[in-house]
Amino acid sequence: MSKISIIVPFYNCPYINQALDSLINQTYQDIEIIVVNDGSTQHSEKIIPYLDKIKYIQKENGGTASALNMGIEHATGDYFCWLSSDDIYYPEKTEVQFAFMKEQNALFSHTNYCAIDKKSRIISPPLGIQPLSRLEIIKRISTKNFINGCSVMINKSVFNHVGVFDETLPYTHDYELWIRIIQKFDVFYLSQPLLLYRVHKQMGSKKHAVAIKKEIDFVINHHKNTMESLLSEESRK
Q1: Largest interatomic CA distance in the chain
Q2: 117: left (phi over 0), alpha (psi -120 to 50) or beta
Q3: Nearest-angstrom CA–CA distance, 60 and 67
């Protein structure tokens, strides 16, 4: 059985216990839960009841990308997943997605998801999308991130080909990595919702919207020539 490593970056998040409960209750048994405390000053006590069930790493604050990379460095699994400390996995998330990846012979996949509020109530229909062709995937990812980072499952061998998260990007490290992955690998989408994505006032995408927009523009421009070449190549097929 393949082991799945799930990295949970943690920084001052009051919902961490709900995230960890969702991982402890996964129906897939061979998982490794790695919590990386990125210099938190609040809510760390909520992790204490889980210490016998997780790998716990503490580091100075360096941002989500640095926490994810440290988790990857310590991961012993064959596959990588990421769960933000304010989000929740469905109990069958890892089991269903892993079976899907084996069936599709996939190295990179993402799933559908729904939004929840601060009280964990579902407040949206399924929000995930996947363009129908590789050409459409390349077109869309060239201008917008349509992949929810916490829905992904990645064969760890992928990192050997494209590298890990760029720690110089505080907000778009996930988007930038997906662009690098899509240049070399196919993207598989599982339409079953397997993630609950929490929307709340303190979430980074709300607090840092202006900075995020600037960073998105930087990432798009940085990869523009490569993606245009890839698009041209795919169009000729």
Answers
A1: 56
A2: beta
A3: 9
Output phi, psi for 42, to 5 deg: -135, 150
Mean pLDDT, rounded, for 7-32: 97
Q: Which of 169, 107, 182 is nearest to 143 (CA)?
A: 182
Instruction: Give the predicted TM-score (pTM) of the model.
Output: 0.95
DSSP string across the chain = ---EEEEEEESS-TTHHHHHHHHHT-S--SEEEEEEEES--SSGGGGGGGTTTSEEEEE----HHHHHHHHHHH--SSEEEE--TT-EE-TTHHHHHHHHHHHHT-SEEEEEEEEE-TT--B-SS------SSHHHHHHHHTT---S-GGG-EEETHHHHHH-S--TT-TTTHHHHHHHHHHHHS--EEEEEEEEEEE--TT-HHHHTHHHHHHHHHHHHHHTHHHHHHHHHHHHT-
Q: Cβ neighbours of residue 144 under 8 Å, at least 6 residues apart?
A: none
For residue 209, what pLDDT is reported?
83
